[in-house]
TrEMBL record:
It comes from the Bacteria. Its main location: membrane. SUPFAM superfamilies: Periplasmic binding protein-like I. This is BMP family ABC transporter substrate-binding protein. The keyword Translocase does not apply. Residues 24-37 have a biased composition (Low complexity). Belongs to the BMP lipoprotein family. It is a lipid-anchor. It is found in: Cell membrane. It comes from Streptomyces zhihengii. Residues 1-23 form the signal peptide. Keywords: Cell membrane, Lipoprotein, Membrane, Signal. The lineage of its organism: Bacteria, Bacillati, Actinomycetota, Actinomycetes, Kitasatosporales. Residues 47-346 form the ABC transporter substrate-binding protein PnrA-like domain. It holds the Pfam family Bmp.
Length: 350
């Protein structure tokens, strides 16, 4: 797999990278791809935190790896730049498309404006946006999830497990997407036990997206909630969530992970026994499915939504300590069935 490192903000460095990538594909000035290998190359551009976040980006990477193994796709990864707000998204996506990658997938809602700008210039290339429906087009696939549903199940589990009747939610950045996680979690807690107090904290506010990339912020927030009596903490904060898990585990309390099954993440192995469960999003499956659709000549477009009914979101059951809690598992499974049946309507905003 070819990995592109961070694109420097300086124009010369960006141009140099663009040239090196373009040399791999078409030299068409129109921007549309004419390579015979089109569809045999795919690229993902990572969100803040990049690969190694033990969460969201790593899930996307797993989907690309699966496509390489099962579809004989040549994969390329592109890391975010370090400037505020990651200013090089348009350049990054353009470089990947010019190199005949198809599809080109922006991992995270922050890529939506860049995809909307670049996609019309490469009409034969499919662009994917994970976690956003605001930007659409004939060659854009919006890969989205019912995060609130999985978070509701986490709330049920937290309310059943807590002994202090105080639990915590930590959001990386206060955006509508992360507020879906909050809304589902709080509703799940309150529907299970209205007497449980839910402490909510966001690490940063837009346009500062550092709350997704700084573990120390997550650690400090979790410590504050622990000091206030929380004994279960759910963090939807990307790489910063690893810091929350560390603090919670060291305190001997329960952490709830997000996006990937964080019990099984190697980078969190030291804390896995205190990772009760994780709200998983099948980002890897969504990435793989989009790549396969292009390979099959029937590229996905428009909104592709994943929820509990198709295991697009779920509550992980990897920790034996969790699965041994019969009453908790029973409550979670009942809530899942009720959400799928429509008996429970989960809110998407607090």
């Amino acid at each position: 797999m070819r990995r592109i490192t961070r694109i420097a903000t300086a124009g010369i460095a960006s141009a140099a990278l663009a040239l090196s990538v373009t040399a791999c594909g078409s030299d068409s000035s129109s921007g549309s791809s004419s390579s015979d290998d089109n569809g045999g190359k795919a690229a993902i551009a990572y969100d803040i935190g990049g690969r190694g976040d033990q969460s969201f980006n790593d899930a996307a990477y797993a989907g690309l790896v699966k496509a390489e193994k099962e579809l004989d796709v040549k994969g390329t990864e592109a890391e975010p730049s370090e400037g505020e707000g990651d200013p090089d998204k348009v350049q990054r996506l353009t470089s990947l498309a010019r190199a005949d990658n198809n599809p080109v997938i922006g991992v995270g809602f922050a890529y939506a404006p860049a995809v909307a700008e670049v996609a019309p210039k490469f009409k034969d290339t499919t662009f994917g946006i994970v976690d956003d429906t605001s930007k659409t087009g004939p060659n854009i696939a919006n890969l989205v999830f019912n995060e609130e549903q999985g978070s509701y199940l986490a709330g049920v589990a937290a309310a059943k497990v807590t002994k202090s009747n105080t639990v915590g939610f930590i959001g990386g950045v206060e955006t509508p997407l992360i507020k879906k996680f909050e809304a589902g979690f709080v509703q799940g807690v309150k529907d299970t036990n209205k007497n449980v107090n839910v402490k909510v904290q966001y690490l940063t506010q837009p346009p500062d997206f550092g709350g997704f990339s700084k573990p120390d912020l997550g650690k400090a927030a979790a410590q504050g909630q622990l000091d206030a009596g929380a004994d279960v903490i759910y963090a939807a904060a990307g790489l910063a969530g690893a810091g929350a898990i560390e603090a919670t585990a060291k305190a001997g309390k329960w952490a709830i992970g997000v996006d990937s099954d964080q019990y099984n993440q190697k980078g969190l192995a030291a804390y896995k026994e205190r990772i009760l469960t994780s709200v998983t999003k099948n980002v890897s499956g969504a990435v793989f499915n989009l790549i396969k659709s292009v390979q099959d000549g029937k590229p996905q477009q428009g909104e592709i939504r994943y929820g509990l009914e198709d295991d697009g979101v779920a509550l992980a059951k990897s920790n034996p300590a969790f699965t041994s809690m019969t009453d908790v598992i029973t409550a979670v499974d009942k809530a899942k069935a009720d959400i799928i049946a429509g008996t429970i309507q989960v809110k998407t905003a607090p």
